[in-house]
Every structure is written in structure tokens, then in C-alpha cells.
Amino acid sequence: MFSFEKFYLFIHSATEIGMVASGVVVDIFLWEQTHSLTPILIFNLGIFISWFVTSLFAPVITEITGLKIAHLASLILNIVFLALLYYLPELTYEPLLLGFAKGIQLGFYSPVSSVITSKIGSGQLQYLASRLAAMSQLVEMIIPPLMAVFIYQTGSYQTMLVVGVAASVFAGLLSLLCSYPTTDRKFSFSALLPVNDTNPEKTLLVPVLFLDGVRQGMFYSLLGIIILYFTNDLMLWGIFIFALETLSLVLDWIYPRIFSESDSLLTVGGASSLFVVASILFISYFNLTGVVILSVAYKILTVVYSINLETSVSRIIELDISRDDLSAEYAGFQDIYRSLGRIVPILALLYLNASLDNPFIIVGAIAVVGMVPFIMTNILSRSYVLKHWRDTIEIA
């Protein structure tokens, strides 16, 4: 049996490639076939509904069966999803059912990824956590553009599905050869509730996670499709996405070296304001120039906000005084409330019959959601432990 730290970086990368392949192929195919937001929004709605339902029991399975079995189950589900697309392409005309299938796979993988991240975030495996984050960004930076270029040149979606299957099979084979961190095989359902006796600040996480889900739901596929709408060319879309993800990687490296945790309110507020201004400009310049400005502002906001949010949520979770290992429970807790939030903007856009031919609904929704990180930061500022931590940093 091979050591976890030597092989998990490759397992994680292959898993990410398989998942990105399945999501990007469907989004591109639905847009190329219909040039309409509606089937993509319906696909996303199916994802988020089934992700929510799956999050009610997937963390239990992760805890009881162990990380290896749960991870293998998520890989098998992804392979099944890709195989269905390959052999039954007519399923793309049923985006809701397709979304349900994809959501189940994401719902199974999310607690596995969260628990592993929490276990390697401290101790001897801490160095691996930063490598995993960097590898995820590299996958997002390289795989979608490569897929777009390949589809542009060959017109074939099936080959990309095969690549996704191959990546998932490779991840599964390595998983079988690797020993995973252990779980305590006990699950506390009370830890899924917003209030418990072991963490006095847990109630703050509920609105924060819900609002984070609203932000994720809004931008899960929408920004990429808006970019494709204006470039109107898969090759240009791939180049655009590569440039954006490169910018994100650079910003992710620069930001923590310039700002500290004590600057979080200032930096998140500034990034949110910049994004709202970019959204307003997007109304005036509803063209490729406008989407470039909007995309750059969104990447700045995402990097600033994500670093501050992840740090704050982790510190509140660490307050829990329970002696049990609650990593799976907190993974489920986060998925449940985020999943509920993800559903809201999709339902709103479908109800309003959002279309890129009428930009005001889309841009208005983007501007409103752009304020979410600032609202979340204000909620987290009520946390005694976070305020105490920032005061300590300022004194130091």
C-alpha cells in the first residue's frame, strides 16, 4: 500500500480533470445547440437540487465507510455520468435529468474533498494542502481551454468524454493502491443543526454559507456562457478562460503577501465595490470590452473573498470543543446550506425568463450578487473570535 501524501496529489488532479470534463462538455454542448440560457439554467437547477438532497446522506456514508470507499463511489458515479452522455447523447435534451445525475456525483465527492482538506490542513500533511489548491487552479486554467480548442478543431464532444472517463479510472486505480486518512466511523446528526452546545458561533455560519451558495449558484456556469456569447468562438473562449485563470493564479499568490487578515473588511468591501461598478459599466458596454472588465473584476473579487471566507469559516469551525472528529459533519453542514443558496438565483433567473438578448435582468442580478461578499464579511465581523484574532494581528 502506497503512502497517501505521495499519491493523493495525482489522485486529486485526475479526479478534478474528470469532473471538469463532464461539466464543461455539457455547458458548451447546450449552448452550441440552443444558444439559450434556459437549458443551461435548468441543468444547473437539477445539479443544485440533487446536490442538496445528496448532502443529507453523503457525509454519513463518507464517515461510516471511510474516505477511500466514498471517493471511489464518487469516481464511479462520474464515470457512469460520462458513459451516459457518450452512449445516450439524447439525454442532453433532458437537462434537468442530466443535472440530477451530475448533482449526485458532486454531492458524493464534496464531503470527501472537504474531509481530506480538513485532515491535511494541519500537522505533517499541511504542505500538501497548498499543492492541492494550486493543482485545482491549474486544472481550471488548462483543461477547459484545451477541451474548447479540441472541440473547435474536431467538432467531437465524445473524445472529451473519453478523456474524462480515463482520468476518473486513473484516479480510481491510484486510490486502490493508496492508504487514506481514517475517520472515526461515527456520525453526529446533531452537528448538522445550526445550533449546538459545542460551538457558540455556529449560528453565524448559516447565513454566510447560504449567501456563499447564492454567489456560487449565480456564477456556476453563467460567466463562462456570457464570455462564449460575446466571443462567439470556442477557440477565443478557450484563450479568454486561460487568461482569466492565469490572472486568478497570480492574484492568489500576490494577495496574501500584501494584505493581512486585519484588512479583510477593507479589501472585500473594495473588491465588491469594484465588481458592482464593473456590472454597471457592463450595462453601458454590453459587448466584449464590457465582459472583459466584468470578468477581471469578478476574478479579483473571487480571490479576495475566497481567501478571507475560507479562513474565517475554518476559525469558527475550530471553535468546536467536541472531542469527536466532526470533519464529515461540518462538511455536510456546509454543503446543506450552500446547496440551498445555490438554488435561489437559478430559480429567480428562470422565473424572470433571463436572456442574453435582454441584458438588464442578467446584469442586475450580477450586480446584486456582487454585494454578497461584503454582506457576508459584515456578518462575520460579529464573531468574537474573529474580531479577537484580527485585534491580535493588529497589535502584533
UniProtKB/TrEMBL annotation:
UniProt cross-references to Gene3D superfamilies, sorted A to Z: MFS general substrate transporter like domains
Keywords: Membrane, Transmembrane, Transmembrane helix
Stored InterPro entries: MFS_trans_sf
Keyword Ligase: no
Transmembrane annotation, as ranges: 7-31, 37-57, 69-88, 159-183, 265-285, 291-309, 360-380
Name of protein: Major facilitator superfamily (MFS) profile domain-containing protein
Organism: Candidatus Collierbacteria bacterium RIFOXYB1_FULL_49_13
